[in-house]
Amino acid sequence: METQKTHIYFVPGLAASPEIFEFLQFPEDKFELHFLEWLIPLSAHEPIEAYAKRMSGLVLEENPVLIGVSFGGIMVQEMSKHLQPKKTIIISSVKSRIELSKSLKFIQKLKIYKLFPSKMIENIEIFSFLAVGETFKTRLKLYKKYFTVRDRKYLNWSIYNVLHWQQTKPIENILHIHGTADAIFSFKYIKGCIPIENGTHIMVISKAKTISKIISDSLK
After folding, report:
1. pLDDT above 80 (res 62)
2. Whole-structure pTM value
3. Which residues are bridge partners to 90 per DSSP?
4. Helix/strand/coil for 43
């Protein structure tokens, strides 16, 4: 008798494509993987709750596992309120606005995010000539490969909703995997997570093997 597979739906980080999950590996006989792409907001003021409901419409199976990275982690938590997931797993993300760093709260309070050069990101190729150092070249290569959603309406909407997310306490049945060297969502503000030593904000790429094992073990 064939064992029923667990369906996993992945939501990438802000502006990222599903390719960011390419190094995660799971037993094919146990899991069916689905990779969601970002929708373009209907307007600059579309509530995150309404957007999450639209994203939830892309989930076709009952009781799936939802996995999100960074802003995708925020999104799967919002989606879980419209679905009945078996488990919600977030990577390099936050469980509530309380886990945002003081610097991010400062940016939100002073509305510095409005100065964010979304136009520059939309046309990242024009900065290729600045990649003089090997580290920067590597980062630019990664950026051009994985961060492909450059619609300005989407970028501005996403940044606003990261900084203005209103959730004040963690949802139930959530697993949080977080790197100790995360430069976006500082580890010192994160509570109740599985720590990944020296894991950065893009550890879903650099520490995929470790993360894959944690996820697989949590779903046994």
Report:
1. yes
2. 0.89
3. 68, 176
4. coil
